Amino acid sequence: MNPRLTLYSRADCCLCDEMKNAIRQVAVRIPLDLEEIDVDGSASSKEKYGAEVPVLLIDGRKSFKHRVTAKQLEQRLRRGSRWGRRGLAERKK
């Protein structure tokens, strides 16, 4: 099973665009499932994450807010899951 990323973001948000770009870079190397949620689409999302966007959850746990680099995200995914170096090598076979 791939890591499940949930990105809370909003339109016209340069930090959100930066985080999406970091996620895209990592997704080339690590298979992942991404769900993007517009915080302005529901009152509960806006109340919970509206002041912090972008917010990235990994497998349901809040992992990053405002900024993340591709390197930081990749390290977190490798450290926190079975997709460590050995897992990726086995998957490529």
Commentary on this structure:
Helix 1 (14-27) packs across helix 3. Helices cover 42% and strands 23% of the residues. The chain has a single domain, classed as Glutaredoxin (3-Layer(aba) Sandwich). It has helices spanning 14-27, 43-49, 70-79, 85-92; strands at residues 4-9, 33-38, 55-58, 61-65. The chain is globular and about 35 Å long. Strands 2-1-3-4 form a 4-stranded mixed β-sheet, covered by helices on one side. It has 93 residues and is α+β, with helices and mostly antiparallel strands. The relative contact order is 0.22. The protein is built from 4 helices and 4 strands, in the order βαβαββαα.
Oligomer: single chain
Cα shape: globular
Q: In what range is the share of β-strand residues?
A: 15-25%
Radius of gyration: 14 Å
Number of helices: 4
- What is the CATH homology-level superfamily? Glutaredoxin
Percent helix, as a range, is 40-55%
Q: How does CATH name the architecture?
A: 3-Layer(aba) Sandwich
Provide keyphrases for this structure.
alpha+beta; four-stranded mixed β-sheet; 93 residues; disordered C terminus; Glutaredoxin
Give a short summary of the structure.
By secondary structure, this protein is α+β, with helices and mostly antiparallel strands. It has a single domain, classed as Glutaredoxin (3-Layer(aba) Sandwich). The protein contains four helices and four strands; from the N terminus they run E-H-E-H-E-E-H-H.
